[in-house]
Fold this protein.
Amino acid sequence: MQLRHLGPDRLAVSALGLGCMGMSAYYGAYDDRESYATIRRALELGVTFFDTADSYGPFSNEALLGRALMGVRDEVVIATKFGNVRSTSGEALGVNGRPEYVRRCCDLSLQRLGTDRIDLYYQHRVDPETPIEETVGAMGELVGAGKVRHLGLSEAGPDTIRRAHAVHPITAVQSEYSLWSRDIEPEVVPTCRQLGVGLVAYSPIGRGFLTGQITSPEDLAPDDWRRGSPRFQGENFQKNLDLVERVRSIAREKGCSPGQLALAWLLHRGDDVVPIPGTKRRSYLEDNVGAVDVRLTADDLARIEEAMPPDSAAGDRYADMSTVGG
């Protein structure tokens, strides 16, 4: 597994990380035993970068990851997040970036993860009611206290990134980024590169859609979050399915899976881009990791661009887009 480096402080992580959200939330039934085995298999394959959040479960995903990484803590990079407030039953209670909340969340995450430090600590969503300077100031205090090593933001806009970075160096910005979600390219990507901030791409295979394995909404569990996503509904679903077929055709010629092609495309966007495809199954993990061996020529990249140009996906990323991009 290749290594990549994030941010001005060059945090070393595997070129592909593992997103753990789906192991505990949003994507239908889960199986802790298989999720545990998937995390351990990721370690065997050279994955050292693991992503979670306190809101996943809620709270249970951090505990699961902590158990699975017991005994190898010094060999991995753990990223977690605060700010998306959830009740114990999972009810969304808004966004909170107040300094006292930041400090409390960090201590609770450390307990659940079973560790003495968080390698990369993200604000999950920007709190419009709390100046980013106050939130990042509190996060910086956690670095000074040794509880956190590096700071990140998730789904932040360019102005917020600049203001945050002026308070304390930001190592990474995590945003949805894939062949069918490229809205960060005009402003967020240039801002990060100007500041030397790394880019962590979540949902890099389009919430599973770019694998080509979802051919009908009925392929999703009844309680799967994606059933409520605009891109998985009505006419949007068929339009997006047509786009995926174009990617599938190129993947067949390259001798790889559509998901591997989508991940390889992201890996070719720059050495500062680290995709974190999420899965709760070892078989999907192994397919994803195979993307690091897919080599794309300039002609391949041009064909992919033609098959799925920017803004070609039908439907918004979220039903309520007001909650992202602050």
Notes: The longest strand covers residues 148-154.
